[in-house]
Amino acid sequence: KKGYMYGDDVKYSCSDESKSTDDITWLNKYMKDQKKSRKNIDISEDVYVAGSGNRIILPKQSGMKYDLNRNAPFDIYNLDYCSSFIVYSSNYTKDKLFGCIITTFDCDNPENTKYELMIYDYLHSYCFSCTTLKGLGIGDIRFIEKSEHSIGYCPFVEFKANKARMGIVEVVEPLFDAVNLITSNTLDNIVDVVGGILLVINNTITGQDKKQVDETGSLTLSTIDPSKPVDARYLINQLQYGEVNLVREELIKTAYNIVGVPQATTQSTSGGDTGQARMLGGGWSRADIVAKQDEPCLKEAESEMLEIAISICNKQPDCKINDLYANDIEVNFCRNKNDNLLVKTQSLQTLIGMNVPKETALNIVELTANPHEVAIEWQTLNDSIEEKNKETEYKKEQLGGNESGLQKETEKETKEIE
User: Fold this and answer.
1) Alpha-carbon distance 290 to 258, whole Å?
2) What is this structure's pTM?
3) How far is residue 237's CA from residue 32's CA, in Å, rounded to a whole number?
């Protein structure tokens, strides 16, 4: 699930005809400086395991030397969901009030532990200390300091995939409990088959005879009464592994479909299937549907993080990002966009023919997961071709419209280059 959603880095592009393309380019550079690709993968694990993950965005520490041409003026930190939390208003607005980070310190006495609580709201940061987190009362907390910050926002951001804050493991836990039970019983049955009970009919064997069976795998029996034939066999209650494995595979497939994970490599389709049929058979189309359902919450968190980061950038006089707002940015998850390629390219040609901006058109057809950089390269190529055509027309005018003269001039320039 992590690889499908965040295997490729999240990219930013223009959401409309805003002229802030240079600012977005710098924003992508700053995010690369902060290694946000890896941090997104890390926080997605928190989201899918615990249901939510916390992140804090802070300005660079005062006095720290850095180059705005290469380094971001902010730092992004992923927080442990077990030692951080965000408090929201209980009214219908559910506004974010503050966030807290709990840090554990060791004391001189190994039996005692000291905790430090760092709280950030929209204007100030507060530091408290305590010696316990259970049954905490007002008298158990010691105030340390209060300071004002210039971020203008509560710097905490919560990433979640759904309103209930449920991880994907929690959603399909009953199904995997059943898979574990089937697997355990299957292994137990294998042990039972190997250590089966030897049944001897119309005869008696000694412990030495049983030891001979275990060592040599053979047993000699004889009968005195022909009316009572001697027989020996193992009592085995063997499962039908084909049918059991079919049930197990169906449970896993159902679990993967619910949470939007492409099918395991054991799932295959026939060689005559079309590309779209293979996408359906392997669970990729279903995974994309669930991913689109998860994206709005994750994009909302990304936009909230960008709002804080841009606010920090605006407070730096020499920062390259100076004319950009979070609502100007389209957050793009980089999943496979090659399905229905012909339809998308035809739609793109139609939109370009209607003079729709290139980046907006690429966002509409979802042809690429990185429309901002593709649009810039596209425009650069068009400008280069247009400039070359102008040079050709100018030379043609200088030669009085003489096509042969223009050809000779071009051949001369080619020989000089060679």
Assistant:
1) 8
2) 0.70
3) 60
